[in-house]
Amino acid sequence: QVQLVESGGGLVQPGGSLRLSCTASGSRFSIDDMGWYRQAPGKEREWVARIYLSATGYADSVKGRFTISRDNAKNTVFLQMNSLKPEDTAVYYCNNPSYPIPWGQGTQVTVSS
């Protein structure tokens, strides 16, 4: 069974950076189409970024600050987050936008001084 494992979160000051990783374990799981999502306390999960083949897309709230990429050899998707703001605080998840599988545990990102 395929599992998604997110990592790389932590506590960072406003203006700082973090790089999140999402590794898909299990065979026969393509990362050609993957997205990052986040859920802040008391809010619904929201879409953050997507990579489909060589194309990428971002929510307006993170455009210009976040970059999604992937390493096919490692079956891993990344989210580089720069110029972080307190409102970026959330648990971050990855999944296939078109055919989602059970969500992983996510990784906590806290932006605070």
Give your account of this protein's structure.
This protein has 113 residues and is mainly β. It is 0% helix and 50% strand. The protein is built from no helices and ten strands. It has a six-stranded mixed β-sheet with strand order 2-10-9-4-5-6, with no helix packed on it. A four-stranded antiparallel β-sheet has the order 1-3-8-7, with no helix packed on it. It is globular and about 40 Å long.
Order of helices and strands: EEEEEEEEEE
Radius of gyration (CA) equals 13 Å
> Percent range for helical residues?
under 10%
Structural class estimated from helices and strands: mainly beta
Averaged pLDDT, please? 95
Q: Between the first and last Cα atoms, what is the distance in angstroms?
A: 40 Å
What is the fold's blueprint, element by element?
Elements: E1 3-7, E2 10-12, E3 18-25, E4 33-39, E5 46-52, E6 55-58, E7 66-71, E8 76-81, E9 90-95, E10 107-111
Parallel strand pairs: 2-10
Antiparallel strand pairs: 1-3, 3-8, 4-5, 4-9, 5-6, 7-8, 9-10
Primary descriptors:
single chain, 113 residues, mainly beta, six-stranded mixed sheet, four-stranded antiparallel sheet
Sum this structure up briefly.
This protein has 113 residues and is mainly beta. The protein is 0% helix and 50% strand.
